[in-house]
């Protein structure tokens, strides 16, 4: 129904948001069939599959690899049982290690794992130990996120009742700086604030988002982007299914003004090693080039931002303040 939304060949596919590892292999295969029947798909593209450790068996991994999945993103979160319990995770530490062994045995060479820092009971030394464990595993990508407390979650309730200490910004900042130093010493390229890669493992799909590529999102709540507007699917499973069955997708269209697009380019660009591309600003218009040049001067003078021939790159020492700096540059 929406195949005309993208006109270019498909350059990457990402199964994620929700838990695609709940799907059977035949269900995954049916989605691949639909993609290939509606689009030209480039050869050898990155096809990422998000998964929880407790869903992954050796046979399941072999099967999804055989139908085209070639990259895994696994929600490990921690190699400490106490942390997994406090975050209400369903898997055990053993399952975390087992699924990575299964992935390697199934022939996956592109594997990413998520780790959480800023956990109140996680000391600096224990955080380094988490990273050192990851380094020894058959992975080529790390996504590291600061623990955040979402409303109406067991974690939020535990903090409210005083059963757990509140999240400390200082601890998160310490852990992030430790992560930066560890990456330099251990062969991981810290290419985006929350993402690190080794051996050429930079995520192509996620990088496309940060660089402003067009994309089509399928499923409840999924977003799509075509350069000028953002489409948002109805965020309700039942309504989404009914809309598809009636062949009338329920979609909210958000028109993106040039000012908003400028702000998005600044926000995402400053989070990456590639920075804000001058060409992207030029395409928006002279007004935006001049605004960025003027507003960023203070940060360039302080050596917090570096100007190259093609881009403006935030120095890694300023990454802790990336969002604040981006806000100062917004129009």
Labels describing this entry:
331 residues, TIM Barrel, 7-stranded mixed sheet, 3-stranded antiparallel sheet, 13 helices, 13 strands, globular
Short description:
The chain has 331 residues and is an alpha/beta fold. 41% of the residues lie in helices and 20% in strands.
Explained architecture:
The chain has helices spanning 25-38, 58-66, 81-86, 93-105, 124-135, 154-160, 169-185, 204-210, 237-245, 258-269, 278-284, 286-301, 322-329; strands spanning 10-15, 41-51, 71-77, 110-117, 141-146, 189-192, 195-197, 223-225, 229-233, 251-255, 276-277, 305-307, 311-314. With 331 residues, the protein is α/β, with parallel strands linked by helices. It has 3 domains: 3-209, Aldolase class I (TIM Barrel); 217-255, no CATH class; 258-329. The strands form 3 sheets. It has a 7-stranded mixed beta sheet with strand order 1-2-3-4-5-7-6, with helices on one face. Helix 5 (124-135) runs parallel beside helix 7. The longest helix is centred in the middle third of the chain and has 17 residues, at 169-185. The two termini are 37 Å apart.
SSE map:
Elements: E1 10-15, H1 25-38, E2 41-51, H2 58-66, E3 71-77, H3 81-86, H4 93-105, E4 110-117, H5 124-135, E5 141-146, H6 154-160, H7 169-185, E6 189-192, E7 195-197, H8 204-210, E8 223-225, E9 229-233, H9 237-245, E10 251-255, H10 258-269, E11 276-277, H11 278-284, H12 286-301, E12 305-307, E13 311-314, H13 322-329
Parallel strand pairs: 1-2, 2-3, 3-4, 4-5
Antiparallel strand pairs: 5-7, 6-7, 8-9, 9-10, 11-13, 12-13
Number of helices: 13
Whole-number count of domains: 3
How big a fraction of the residues is strand? 15-25%
Give the helix level as a range of percent. 40-55%
Describe the oligomeric state of these chains in a short phrase.
Answer: single chain
């Amino acid at each position: 129904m929406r195949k005309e939304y993208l006109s270019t060949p498909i350059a990457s596919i990402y199964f994620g948001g929700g838990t695609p590892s709940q799907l059977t292999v035949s269900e995954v295969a049916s989605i691949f069939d639909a993609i290939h029947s509606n689009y030209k798909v480039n050869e050898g593209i990155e096809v990422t599959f998000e998964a929880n450790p407790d869903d992954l068996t050796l046979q399941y991994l072999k099967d999804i690899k055989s139908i085209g999945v070639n990259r895994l993103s696994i929600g490990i979160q921690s190699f400490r049982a106490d942390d997994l319990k406090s975050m209400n995770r369903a898997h055990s530490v053993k399952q975390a290690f087992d699924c990575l062994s299964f992935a390697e045995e199934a022939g996956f060479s592109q594997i990413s794992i998520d780790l959480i820092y800023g956990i109140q009971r996680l000391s600096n030394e224990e955080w380094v130990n988490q990273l050192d464990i990851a380094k020894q595993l058959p992975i080529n990508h790390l996504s590291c996120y600061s623990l955040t407390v979402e409303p109406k979650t067991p974690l939020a309730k535990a903090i409210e009742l005083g059963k757990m200490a509140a999240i400390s910004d200082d601890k998160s900042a310490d852990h992030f700086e430790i992560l930066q130093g560890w990456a330099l010493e251990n062969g991981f390229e810290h290419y985006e604030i929350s993402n690190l890669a080794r051996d050429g493992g930079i995520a192509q799909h996620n990088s496309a988002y940060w660089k402003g590529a067009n994309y089509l999102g399928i499923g409840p709540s999924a977003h799509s982007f075509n350069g000028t507007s953002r489409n948002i699917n109805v965020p309700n499973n039942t309504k989404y299914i009914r809309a598809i069955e009636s062949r009338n997708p329920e979609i909210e269209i958000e028109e993106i003004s040039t000012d908003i697009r400028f702000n998005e380019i600044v926000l995402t660009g400053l989070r990456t090693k590639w920075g804000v591309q001058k060409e992207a600003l030029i395409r928006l218009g002279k007004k935006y080039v001049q605004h960025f040049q003027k507003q960023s001067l203070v940060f360039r003078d302080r050596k917090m931002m570096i100007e190259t021939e093609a881009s403006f790159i935030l120095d890694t020492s300023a990454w802790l303040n990336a969002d604040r700096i981006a806000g100062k540059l917004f129009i």
